[in-house]
Specification:
Layout: H1 9-16, H2 24-36, H3 43-57, H4 62-73, H5 80-86, H6 118-124, H7 131-143, H8 146-156, H9 169-184, H10 188-199, H11 203-211, H12 216-224, H13 229-239, H14 241-244, H15 247-259, H16 262-301
Helix pairs in contact: 1-15, 2-3, 2-4, 2-13, 3-5, 7-16, 8-16, 9-10, 9-13, 10-11, 12-16, 13-15
């Protein structure tokens, strides 16, 4: 039996028809990306692609259809039924390509605002809440179940806690592209490094987010970057096989992501940053306290010298008792 191009694909299509998140545009993009990665395909693979893609092309929005059309237009092994459905012409050697009209020059756009440097971003990432509160929220979130995490994130939007500042758009856009490519390559190390750098998180917390089995922490991190929903769904499908092969998990996380507010994600981001400071303070306060107590104890037990500084020592006497 031929292995399908994408695991649980039919189940995801069926689930997307129900009320909730429409993931058909993402599925068509993913299916197309998988198909064009190989230079050639067997007859069964081509038949599967034609059958699945034909159904989705009629059900997605114009932007998705245009993106898929552009991708397949330059792929030499695009099946004829798909080319006909998308209005593409087959390639022939020697065919002249018509030249487009010259595009008039647009007026010079105003210079964009200067992008803050990494140093400025780290300096601006000040504490948004007390370290103790941040540590409690951090620990409570990672110990909670899936339903409890959804409730925590919902309640964070109503709390008076100060949220972390938004990630600058240029930095977030660059991070989203890097994260998506790392997900395609299944490069966990690069993915974790980029996530920590873009959200200004220590490596320990970034690794905890990436290794989280439930996937809710990754959804919060993506929302803090203002990642579009299709990009987040593609990361789930490629980077998290244990999630991407589960129809219900993909649907649950996609629905959670679309309902997750920016404020909830930024408050949780502030808690992740603050929890590290709480751990560091507890560590060094304990060592400093023990050191001071040890020094005080050693100073109290040290005997006083018999001769005070500046005093004249007594003269030694000879055998006859006379002084020398």
């Amino acid at each position: 039996m031929t292995k399908p191009l994408f695991p649980a694909f039919d189940g995801l299509i069926t689930l997307s028809r129900r009320e909730g998140v429409d993931i058909r545009p993402t599925l068509l993009r993913v299916l197309t990306d998988l198909y064009v990665q190989a230079k050639s395909h067997s007859g069964d693979e081509e038949r599967q692609f034609v059958e699945l893609a034909s159904r989705l092309i009629d059900q997605v929005d114009d932007a998705t259809r245009a993106a898929v059309k552009a991708r397949l237009a330059i792929y030499p092994a695009t099946p004829a039924p798909i080319m006909q459905k998308l209005g593409l012409l087959p390639t022939h050697e020697g065919r002249r390509i018509p030249l487009a009209r010259e595009i008039p020059a647009l007026p010079a756009a105003p210079a964009p605002d200067r992008t803050p440097t990494d140093v400025e971003l780290r300096m601006s990432a000040n504490m948004a809440m007390q370290p103790k509160d941040a540590a409690e929220i951090h620990d409570m979130f990672f110990r909670a179940t899936a339903s409890e995490r959804a409730l925590i994130l919902h309640n964070l939007a109503q709390t008076p806690l100060k949220a972390a500042p938004r990630i600058p758009t240029a930095r977030a856009t660059r991070a989203i592209q890097t994260l998506e490519w790392a997900a395609y390559a299944e490069d966990t190390e690069s993915f974790t490094l980029e996530l920590g750098e873009s959200l200004i998180l220590p490596s320990r917390v970034a690794a905890q987010i990436v290794d989280d089995v439930g996937g809710e922490a990754l959804a919060v991190a993506a929302r803090a970057l203002d990642m579009p929903s299709p990009n987040f769904q593609r990361i789930l499908l490629f980077f998290k096989p244990e999630i991407g092969t589960s129809v219900n998990t993909v649907y649950r996380l996609s629905r959670l992501y679309d309902r997750l507010s920016d404020r909830s994600a930024l408050v949780m981001l502030a808690a992740w940053r603050g929890s590290t400071l709480a751990v560091t303070r507890a560590k060094y306060q304990s060592s400093l306290y023990d050191g001071e107590r040890q020094r005080a104890r050693s100073g109290a037990s040290q005997p006083r010298p018999a001769v005070q500084p500046g005093a004249i020592p007594p003269m030694r006497t000879g055998t006859g008792g006379s002084e020398r």
